[in-house]
């Protein structure tokens, strides 16, 4: 599955991040808790350099809790604070606010000693498309400050947003990287909706997702779709799901498009279960 996607606005976003970084005190790097490795843009660390950083594992309500705890330990071993977040219920918001204050405490004290007037803590929030940046910003701001949507690319330009407490946040559009060398990374991003479905073959994508889930979380697929555990091939599982859910066309054939969209939608909504596609290596 060859995916090479780098629209012009992604290049502009990278230039924007570099340009605005000097105005920022701390960076929030948003990752999808289900796929922390695949949802990490490899260019981000290079761009932000030594700026203080807090890792936010968003959509933790959709991920396996035990595996998320493993990821927290994984980042802790690297000297990074990772905070699981669920914007639907507001979990993790207080923790990221505290971490932002801790990350810049020494800098703010130094400014105070120099006689400088105290100012708002300036935060940059970065992450790939559709990782939930706008939802987190709206929660932190306590109002609808940023556009939200379940389609990648809703946030278009730079904007400073005043948050509750003494903080300001620079929202930026999601940024992907020029080419996905690793097919598994590309697939994980597509499974979770970071890549627009319009540029994908959704039937093949859903089949790949079924293959991955059958290997990692078979019991959840069996429970959700009432399919037989003895099935071996992903296409057999997909056919059985289609028949059990009535995704049939005239003559008894399988409506693969309808089946594919259903499986993808239900996975992304967490209806198949709390599933993590990656574990710490």
Write the layout of secondary structure elements.
Layout: H1 8-20, E1 26-32, H2 44-48, E2 53-58, H3 65-77, E3 82-84, H4 93-103, H5 105-113, E4 121-126, H6 133-141, E5 159-163, E6 167-171, H7 183-191, H8 202-216, H9 218-225, H10 234-244, H11 256-268
Parallel strand pairs: 1-2, 1-4, 2-3, 4-6
Antiparallel strand pairs: 5-6
Please provide a written account of the structure.
One of its GO terms (cellular component) is cytoplasm. The chain is an alpha/beta fold. Helices cover 41% and strands 11% of the residues. The chain has eleven helices and six strands. It has helices spanning 8-20, 44-48, 65-77, 93-103, 105-113, 133-141, 183-191, 202-216, 218-225, 234-244, 256-268, and strands at residues 26-32, 53-58, 82-84, 121-126, 159-163, 167-171. A six-stranded mixed sheet has the order 3-2-1-4-6-5. Helix 3 (65-77) links the parallel strand 2 and strand 3. The radius of gyration is 21 Å and the shape is elongated. The relative contact order is 0.15.
**Mean pLDDT across all amino acids:** 84
Cα shape: elongated
CATH homologous superfamily caption of the largest domain: P-loop containing nucleotide triphosphate hydrolases
Strand content: 5-15%
Query: For the terminal residues, how far apart are their CA atoms?
Result: 24 Å
Number of contiguous helices: 11
CATH architecture of the largest domain: 3-Layer(aba) Sandwich
Major sheet strand order = 3-2-1-4-6-5
Uncertain parts: 1-5, 147-157
Overall radius of gyration:
21 Å
* Largest sheet composition: 6 strands, mixed
CATH topology of the largest domain: Rossmann fold
Q: How many domains?
A: 2
Specify the CATH class of the largest domain: Alpha Beta
* H and E string: HEHEHEHHEHEEHHHHH
What fraction, in percent, of the residue positions are helical? 40-55%
Number of strands: 6
Structural class: alpha/beta
Family: Belongs to the TRAFAC class YlqF/YawG GTPase family. MTG1 subfamily.
Subcellular location: Cytoplasm
Function: Required for a late step of 50S ribosomal subunit assembly. Has GTPase activity.
Keywords: Cytoplasm, GTP-binding, Nucleotide-binding
